[in-house]
Amino acid sequence: MDSPDNSRELSKLKENFPIFNCLSSVVLKDLVKMVSWFKTNEGNSLFQQGAPGLGVYLLLEGEIEQHHLTPQGKKLIFKLSGPGEVIGTETLFNKENHIATAEIITDVAHVGFLERNSFFEFMDENPALLFNFAKQLSTECMAYKLKLVESSYYGSKQRISRLILAGKESQLDLSRAKLAYLSGVSYKTTIQVLSELEDRKYIETDNHSIAVKDEDALFKLAHDFPLDLDDEGLL
Domain range for residue 76? Predict the structure, then answer.
């Protein structure tokens, strides 16, 4: 019989991380033994830009911002991640260093860690999981390409509208500064677009949040991609 602690750990994986749905409960019990759970606070990092990839992180609670700093000190946000996502997959199948820092942006984050070599052995014994990771990485690659198309050819209103809708669906808190970073639009232009959207009664803003008031109208402003970027957690 499983101990109460093991049962809780098993429930964490089954209920919160869809990528493991291909595994039976018996196999998941083996995976549970490999996960090291911990809590960490805002401002701390799961890994740093330039550091080697040691494994992957399972985000149970909280939000993670992955960003790259240029030599000039400019920050580029690659991705915002919420609960249920696996962080650090880009270095899972190679020995390259991380090109981004994964920073906690909520008061606290509850995270599980899977050491790379042990996890490789586990996937070797469970090829269905290996296929799931390959599928996810392929989808993320396509999504990033589509984001590049979006940033190159579509206007600031479309980009910001999509991000507002994405934030609403994923329940991620998108500040004005984050909208500017993620959309590739200047902070001044972001404020102007938000003001216009508010004048049109599409959104309502206060000092800390943006509420969607007319979702249909906002959706019409956003470009309709053949792949849902928001479902992939690629804000």
Answer: 4-125
Average pLDDT value for the chain:
84
Q: Which tens digits make up the pLDDT trace of 110-130?
A: 999 999 999 999 999 999 999
The CA angle 106-34-64, to the nearest 5 degrees, is 15
Question: What's the rounded Cα separation, in Å, for the pair 11 and 183?
Answer: 36
Q: What is the pLDDT of residues 34-51, one digit of tens each?
A: 999 999 999 999 999 999
Give the DSSP letter of residue 200. Answer: T
**pLDDT tens digits for 52-99?**
999 999 999 999 999 998 888 888 888 888 899 999 998 888 888 999
d(CA 168, CA 165): 5
Task: Return the closest-CA partner of residue 171 out of 101, 83, 87.
Answer: 83
In this structure, the answer to whether residues 47 and 108 fall within a common structural domain is yes
* Residue 119: both structure tokens together: 């996890």
Q: What residue type is assigned to position 56 of the chain?
A: V
**193 inside domain:** yes
Q: Are residues 99 and 167 in the same domain?
A: no
The answer to whether 45 and 103 have CB atoms below 8 angstroms apart is yes
- How many Cβ atoms from other residues are within 10 Å of residue 121's Cβ? 11
pTM exceeds 0.90: no
pLDDT at 76: 82
Amino acid at 75: K
